[in-house]
Specification:
Blueprint (H helix, E strand, L loop, with lengths): L1 H6 L5 H13 L5 H6 L8 H14 L2 E5 L7 E5 L3 H16 L4 H11 L4 H13 L1
Antiparallel strand pairs: 1-2
Amino acid sequence: MNSELNKLKPLTKAEMDVMNVLWDAGRSLTVGEIVEGYDEPRPAYTTVATFLKILEAKGYVEHKRKAETGRTFYFSPMLSREKYIAHVVGEVKDTLFGSSAKSFCSFLIQNEDLSDEDLQEILCLIQNN
């Protein structure tokens, strides 16, 4: 899967919105169900259908027909949200921080508005790893 991840093209904001609906649902959805998963104002059915075609061509989703529903397509993600996040964060780390996890973490700590509680939790995570 790692070599497959390296071939994935980045997601646009609109494509990411579709993926988030699918990931949040945790099951295969029809185009109509995906539209219903959006907050108002919802995108048009045809807009979501177009994004699903793009996502399928990029290798992020697949579709199947369920025997009991006939012609209706059900779409599901081909990778988990966690794998996608790990891929994107890894690319950012490699591209912008010379593959240095230390530089990446240092940047986040110095540039995020972290509370003392947040910093304590981060320290605990580091100590437990």
